[in-house]
Amino acid sequence: MERVLDPQRSAVIIVGAGPAGISTALFLAKKGIRSTLIEKETFPRDKICGDGLSGWVVSMVRRINPELLRKLQSLPDQLPSHGVRFFAPNMKSVALPYRNAKYPNEPPGYVIRRIDFDRLLMEEAGKNPLIEVIQGVTIANFEYGEHGVVLSDITGKLCYTASMCVIATGSGSKLARLVIPGKKDYKRQATGIRQYYEGITGFHEGNFVDFYFLNEFLPGYMWVFPLPDGRANVGAGIRTDILKKRKLSLKLVVEQALIHKPHLAERFKHAHPVSGIAARDLPLGSKKVKLSGNRVLLTGDAGFLIDPFTGEGVGNAMWSGFAAAEHIENALAANRFDAAFNKKYDRFVYKKLWKELRLSAWIQRLINYPKLFNWVMNKVVAHPDLQHSLIRMIDDLGERRKLTRLSFYIKLLSRNGTT
Ligand SMILES: Cc1cc2nc3c(=O)[nH]c(=O)nc-3n(C[C@H](O)[C@H](O)[C@H](O)COP(=O)(O)OP(=O)(O)OC[C@H]3O[C@@H](n4cnc5c(N)ncnc54)[C@H](O)[C@@H]3O)c2cc1C
Description:
Blueprint: E1 2-4, E2 12-15, H1 19-30, E3 35-39, E4 52-53, H2 55-64, H3 66-74, E5 79-81, E6 83-87, E7 93-97, E8 109-111, H4 114-126, E9 131-135, E10 139-145, E11 148-153, E12 159-162, E13 164-167, H5 174-179, E14 189-198, E15 209-212, E16 221-226, E17 231-239, H6 240-245, H7 250-260, H8 262-267, E18 272-273, E19 278-283, E20 292-293, E21 296-298, H9 314-334, H10 339-367, H11 370-382, H12 384-395, H13 397-400, H14 406-413
Parallel strand pairs: 1-12, 2-3, 2-13, 3-9, 6-15, 13-21
Antiparallel strand pairs: 4-8, 5-8, 6-7, 10-11, 11-12, 14-17, 14-18, 14-19, 15-16, 16-17, 20-21
Helix pairs in contact: 1-4, 1-9, 2-3, 2-9, 9-10, 11-12
The structure holds flavin-adenine dinucleotide (FAD).
């Protein structure tokens, strides 16, 4: 059965209802543009994630609708988070509060299970008259027909035709590979696991998210993020090529750390898992990829937009949804959906995100040198003024760029520290 979408109703199909896909639909709706959002699962659905929402995500939610942010803030499922703690391999820690200069009375970040956050976004899409939501349909392929791009489902029975298609199908997307051909590159991918726990102690009073850098696991790290009701998201992630080369088991890395690192063993003394372990890939934005083709745009993880250092992808996924909506508005106005025109979308996305992604890829490489990383961390732990610099670096790209300058390390060398 072919269903040609009436351009008056919906000229745009979005495949995948994660933060990237839903944001695309919501930003299009803000412009008065109809879209059809097709999702293979039925909501609420789980998504393997650390569940940490940075200030970048908060600002995107606000940009969609300040009322939506208020709904997020009033959910019992969220925990406001005011900063980050880094634990060096020697378990010395540095606590860095997030700055929130623009909205000082609001929490700068949140931790919320993705099943709850994505449901909030999906409810917002579901009640918007300009968004048609279709759930339980897996799109398997797209090709070109007389009226536009034709998407077919895995049963081969359903077909949808539209002027433009947005692929927002997340990591490991077969549809995205039709746009970005070539072999898998494990250097551009991380593997992560996540498990929910109850009973962990020792959280920061501001619900800071905790990152543990373990000597034997660098450049990967473990995380412990607090959730409401005494629960927590515990996980570990590392670049997939390194995981394979060292034949690591992420499950074992976490198990061993909880036994052999006295600080972690103490925090987990009365803790127990309340879910199984789940694993998923993270497509890292450490190299530019093709983000569009004839009548097709890629957003979020499908376009490799995860920060290579922090592993955060929700904010960039939502921003790419915004960028796709901006581009589609121009494409509809110009009646141009061809690959050459769509290149403007690639340029728009990378103009905004590339500097930060490239810098994060650079920092990720720095962590590859454990001795250098330990040395920097120990210096920071020993010097409060350096901690202030790092706080500024968290939300100021210009400040963060100092990490790539030799002068930064010479200044570190000139300090009398404990190391
Ligand atoms: C272990 C781990 C920890 C992470 N921790 C964090 C964190 O703390 N903070 C953070 O910001 N980011 C984190 N990330 C990254 C973050 O999860 C992703 O960047 C984010 O989910 C990307 O959103 P998306 O909309 O592009 O894709 P997704 O959220 O994956 O959504 C894709 C959607 O498409 C649907 N879909 C897939 N294929 C099809 C198809 N063929 N047809 C129809 N529908 C389809 C899926 O069911 C899904 O609903 C983590 C990732 C991992 C793996």
